[in-house]
Structure formats: structure tokens, C-alpha cells
Design goal:
Layout lengths: L1 H10 L7 E5 L2 E4 H19 L3 H4 L4 H20 L6 H27 L5 H24 L16 H19 L4 H21 L2 H20 L3 H18 L3 H7 L10 H19 L9 H7 L18 H9 L1 H12 L10 H14 L9 H16 L3
Antiparallel strand pairs: 1-2
Helix pairs in contact: 1-2, 1-6, 2-5, 4-15, 5-17, 6-7, 6-8, 7-8, 7-9, 7-16, 9-16, 10-16, 14-15, 16-17
């Protein structure tokens, strides 16, 4: 029975939107409850089968990455401790780091022991994204859109929806390449709904990421280059592009770039990246603490022209968020995670998982693809399946 709870957790990722109040100002969402139950049953199964000692036999590089990543965030949390935001910050750490990482560790170990299966995690994810994409189709034709005509269904932004549908498209394409008959036709139908709803989100980050991955896939097929040989260079390229956004504002100032009135989404991003650069310059070592970006962003208001966008909980960039809120220790742990080169086995799902991970990293140049309840679970599962128990 325990294995189905893991798959159900993935199938019902959006239930984080439903919260159960515990005390005044403190609540827990349904996804956290599913994660807690899954982790409990996973650990129970590991203990019952006598594999608890082996469970701690994670590779040294992964142990170091986990140490620097978690210790760095905890250190930054206490370094920037504020009593008024204590429970909010603790909630962020719980939902975005602690529970997803524990879920990934336990699930990955059981996959390694062949008691859980990556294929069923993928099926569960496609079930969830297919449901969202069908909802998106009806929402679109019911004109239930944002003020600027974008599809977001019940999420807090169109980009949040697109970041879930993008990996769904990649996984469906993978299954299509190995299917035929009625199942092939069924997958084509799902692909139509996914593509339609993704286009309706008007998410530039999703379009950019998917087209880049299609080009990469075509390149590897035509040149017959191993994905493992490309892997470190691809990771390095995404890191370079991620940091390059910090210099958009100084470069555009030299070109006399005229800001639009009213400001466009691009104008907002320029200001966000510029202010992020200012915050990092004075908080590089320890960061400003998890969940504290927006407060520090608003403190810079007096030093800048009126912001085109004020409600900014994150800097729209994975790498920048890690640096600005976690500091150098968290950055080092993150680099250890993503540079840990996975070993690809023939007839496995590793190649597909790497492409989905690449999607997260690419879209993470212009958005935060794992600092969100549902997306953080998927990101850490990818890291876990590819790295935690590879021999």
C-alpha cells in the first residue's frame, strides 16, 4: 500500500493550494500532509526490510551537497532571524526544502531497491498535468483568463501553470516515441491539450525552454553525442546565462533603452534583476534569509525610480534566489547537486529525467522553478532519481 501513497502525492501536487488552519496565523497545506504520510511509510518500509543502514549510504558528493545546502539555509535563517516572520520562514523551509528533500531521499532509495518505480511517478505526473491542461482548455473558452488574457486556471500566475505543463509535454513526447495503436492516439490527445494550454499561458520562459530542448535533442541525434558529454557544458551555460541577467540594466543604460509606459514585463524584470544585484553585493556571504527577498527589495525603493512591479517574492531566477537568500554556502551545495554527473543506464528513464531537469534549469533563468510547493517536489525527485543512490 505504501507505494501508492508516493504516486498519489505526485498525482495531487496542486492540493498545496488547500490549507488547514492549526492556530492563529499558522496552517498546513494538504500537500505537506501527503508528503509527511509518504515519508513516514517510506521510512517504515525501509526499517522493516532492514535497509536503514544502507539508506544512509548516499554518495559523498551528495552528502556534502545536502550538508552545505541545508546548513547554509539554516545559518542564513538564524543570521537574519526576525521574530515577526519566524513561522512564515519556517513554513517556507518546511514546504520548499525539508519535506521535498526527505520525500526525494526515501522515494529514491526505494526506487534503487526496486520497490518503487520511476515509470509510475512519471505516469502520476502526466495524470496531474493532463487534468490541468484539460481544465485549461475549458477555462480558455470560458474566457476565465487574467486581465491581460493569459491562462492561469487556479494558480497564482500563468508562469506557475506553464512550469508544470512544460515537463508534462517532454514526458508525453518520450512515451509517444515508445507507443503505438490506441495508446499512441491517447497520448497525442493529451499532447494537444498540453500544448494548447501551454500556449495559452503566454509564458516566454516555457517557450524558450521547450524549443531549446528540442534543438538540443535534434543536435544529440544528428551528432550522436552522448548526453553525458554535453551535460557539464549545458549546466555551465545555464549558470552563465543566469548570472548574465544581473548586467542587463547597466548594459541597457548604455544603449539608452526607453522604458515603456506603462512598463512591460521586460521592464519589470530589468528592475528586479538590478535591485537583486544591489542586494547581493552587500549580502553575498550569508544572504538575506529564506523568504526575505521581498522585504529587502522594497527597502531599495528609495534608491531607485518607482518600481514597475512591487509585489516580488523572488527575483525570477533560480540561481539569484539561492545567492540572495541563502548566501555562498547554499550556492556551493546547489552547484554540487547539479554538477554531480549522473550515470546513464541503457533502457532506463535517465535520459528523460535529465531533459526534464534541463527544463527546470532553463526556465529557471527567468523564473524560480523549485521555490514553490509542487515544483520543489518534482525538482528534488529529479535530483534524487539521478544522483542519490547511483553506484
Amino acid at each position: 500500500m505504501f507505494k501508492y501513497i508516493n504516486y498519489l502525492t505526485i498525482a495531487f501536487l496542486p492540493v498545496y493550494l488547500f490549507k488547514i488552519p492549526l492556530t492563529t496565523g499558522v496552517s498546513i497545506n494538504l500537500l505537506d500532509i501527503l508528503l509527511l504520510v509518504s515519508i513516514f511509510f517510506n521510512l517504515f518500509q525501509i526499517t522493516q526490510t532492514g535497509n536503514l543502514k544502507e539508506f544512509f549510504s548516499v554518495r559523498l558528493s551528495i552528502k556534502l551537497a545536502l550538508f552545505f545546502f541545508t546548513f547554509g539555509y539554516l545559518f542564513s535563517f538564524f543570521e537574519n532571524f526576525e521574530k515577526s516572520s519566524f513561522f512564515d520562514t519556517l513554513g517556507l523551509l518546511k514546504s520548499f526544502l525539508i519535506l521535498p528533500i526527505l520525500f526525494s531521499l526515501t522515494s529514491s532509495f526505494l526506487v534503487y531497491k526496486k520497490e518503487l518505480f520511476v515509470k509510475y511517478f512519471l505516469y502520476s505526473f502526466v495524470f496531474m498535468t493532463s487534468t490541468l491542461s484539460v481544465f485549461g482548455f475549458f477555462y480558455f473558452f470560458s474566457n476565465l483568463l487574467t486581465f491581460d488574457g493569459r491562462l492561469e486556471i487556479f494558480f497564482n500566475s500563468p508562469n506557475a501553470l506553464a512550469m508544470l505543463l512544460g515537463p508534462g509535454i517532454i514526458i508525453i513526447l518520450f512515451f509517444l516515441s515508445k507507443s503505438h495503436g490506441y495508446f499512441y492516439a491517447f497520448l497525442l490527445t493529451l499532447l494537444f491539450f498540453h500544448t494548447f494550454s501551454t500556449i495559452a499561458t503566454s509564458s516566454s520562459g516555457s517557450f524558450f525552454s521547450l524549443f531549446t530542448l528540442f534543438a538540443l535533442f535534434a543536435f544529440t541525434k544528428s551528432t550522436k553525442l552522448s548526453l553525458l558529454k554535453i551535460y557539464p557544458f549545458f549546466i555551465l551555460a545555464t549558470l552563465l546565462f543566469s548570472t548574465s541577467v544581473l548586467f542587463l540594466s547597466p548594459l541597457l543604460k548604455k544603449t539608452n533603452y526607453p522604458q515603456n509606459i506603462p512598463p512591460s514585463s521586460f521592464d519589470s524584470r530589468i528592475v528586479i534583476y538590478d535591485v537583486t544585484r544591489q542586494i547581493i553585493s552587500t549580502n553575498f556571504v550569508f544572504g538575506v534569509g529564506p523568504g526575505n527577498f521581498q522585504n529587502n527589495y522594497l527597502l531599495k525603493q528609495s534608491d531607485n525610480p518607482p518600481y514597475p512591479q512591487w509585489a516580488v517574492p523572488h527575483p525570477h531566477n533560480n540561481l539569484l534566489l539561492i545567492i540572495v537568500e541563502g548566501g555562498i554556502l547554499v550556492l556551493f551545495g546547489y552547484l554540487l547537486f547539479i554538477f554531480s554527473n549522473p550515470k546513464i543506464k541503457k533502457m532506463s528513464f535517465d535520459i528523460l529525467l535529465i531533459f526534464v531537469l534541463f527544463y527546470f534549469l532553463l526556465h529557471g533563468i527567468v523564473d524560480t522553478t523549485f521555490w514553490k510547493n509542487d515544483l520543489s517536489v518534482i525538482f528534488w525527485l529529479l535530483i534524487g532519481f539521478l544522483n542519490f543512490y547511483k553506484k
